[in-house]
């Protein structure tokens, strides 16, 4: 050992100190030898009990960790969800083997065992240890000592979450002779586990005692409980009887025993040793102890104080490492630990609160800052505003230019947003292409210039690798306290405003309470619309399409109507767009097609060949299965394809032109008529329309309403009619409400008209009556 080492000084000083202590101890030991032996025995048992309990706790912790790992295993949760009992049992057995668990049980929320690695036949039986599950439900886990099939186990129960609790995992170590041998090796005590036996006796479940001494325990229980000392065989023991708990088969106790001969042996040896050193050491012990205590404890106290400051989060302390002894080495290690902890905490904070791509705060950090800002606003009585921003067509950038280019766009957008707001404002990236801006001390009405400034930021294309990218965004804004008073509700309001802005194709919207009401109404309507479709509560009305050449009315358009049992008439303009947004429009269209084709068949059987038009949505047009479904309905109703016309919009055609054209060709090849509805309001080119297999153009009502009084509208309608006729198409004008417009359309060469000037949409029976009257009226 080095001369300046702490170990050298401790050895030298405590060698003299030991001599003094031995000399003084000789006198004391010779007087109170018996008392010391008893006290030593009691202390040994008390210490042994603490060690024993700690060992049981450590085994419980090992079980708990193993059970928690098992509970988080995806394969286990998947097996539970699919009720794959073989996989479940295999997962339990594998995890139990890894930590050497002797028993693994999984039970469901109904407290029925689903899998048991010890006795698979117990599957389907009630779980016997309900108190452990009850404790685990309160604390997230529980442990206990229980007997299973006559064997003693240390058990731990933890919940399985996905993310809510879906069951309970029980793991256990069997407590047997090998277990108690391990406990004896660590605690130094004889260990015996006792449980109820048939009758009134106690049964040895596991023990380190020899067989003869085990057998002697049966008649010593009263003595053990009353005195805490017993003679087993030919040897005296100090004992301690500890109740571990009540199992289903009765109380479980552990008997800790220490041989008196073992306890007294060190005392006798100590007497012999101390007899040679009993004098003169006291003075040396006092002098040396004072000197050593001062030199050792002072630097250790300083390091302990520094360690306490580190525990409190202070990592900027200066640590003196000039001492060359082990204390100096300890100080150096403490300094390195302080630096490493500070670096790791900084990295953890970065990972937890910062978006790695843009360097902006992430959603978690933004929520914290928003909570802090709301607290500050509550104190100061000020307002604040939250903006949520979502980029338009960002997915197209990723799909076309690749994700690396998309990442660069996000980085540049984040940088521009920071430049567009004040220094005290916060810009965060919530997820994907969604950003948020916190404007403290700013009312939502005062935030309009900020919104315009952000929109102005997007007016300048992004230049990436010489490629200009036109990026736009929609925004929603909500303010504290007028819209919400907690962060989660404030973000929800801003997000709803963003959603409504996107749906309305507006650059931004400020939240109002009507948005939430409208969303709740729409959600309610969707469920009720599903019920209406499934229970055939919708109605079809038919509006005639009258030919201008001979006034015949052998064509009509089918229009869906919904009479709600509580809301009354629900406008198609209210539920059709919402059905299109949610995708449920396909089910509505299927119902309309089925009802319309059936009605055509009914009319055909009565001698009325009425051609009916049905509107298709964009989602319908992009459904490859549509032609097959229509053909099946026509065949079932016995209706010729020529009596069905499908109306499509220009916007639906432009969503996916290739797929739309393929679907239209298949429908046209079946013999169906096809019409472009609301012509003139979309964005399709004439060259594209020329390629479509359509048979009819319907002029939108916007060009018809003022036709008799507006020359510009007349020229547009005239050119549309001429274009349709040149392409071989029939032209229909819809929304006609007066006879003056009828005459203008007749003069312009329109083929058919549809509107209130002849009839409103009617139920099927009313249409038949109108059709009969119209035939009689127009008959030659």
What does this structure look like?
With 780 residues, the protein is of the alpha+beta class. Helix 25 links the parallel strand 24 and strand 25. Helix 1 crosses helix 9, helix 2 runs antiparallel to helix 4 and helix 10 packs parallel to helix 11. The longest helix has 39 residues. The relative contact order is 0.05. The mean pLDDT is 81.
Distance between the termini: 131 Å
Radius of gyration: 44 Å
Biggest sheet strand line-up: 18-19-21-22-23-24-25-26
Q: Which structural class matches the secondary elements?
A: alpha+beta
Strand content: 15-25%
* Rounded average pLDDT: 81
**Major pleated sheet:** 8 strands, mixed, barrel
Keywords:
alpha+beta, 5-stranded antiparallel beta sheet, 27 helices, elongated
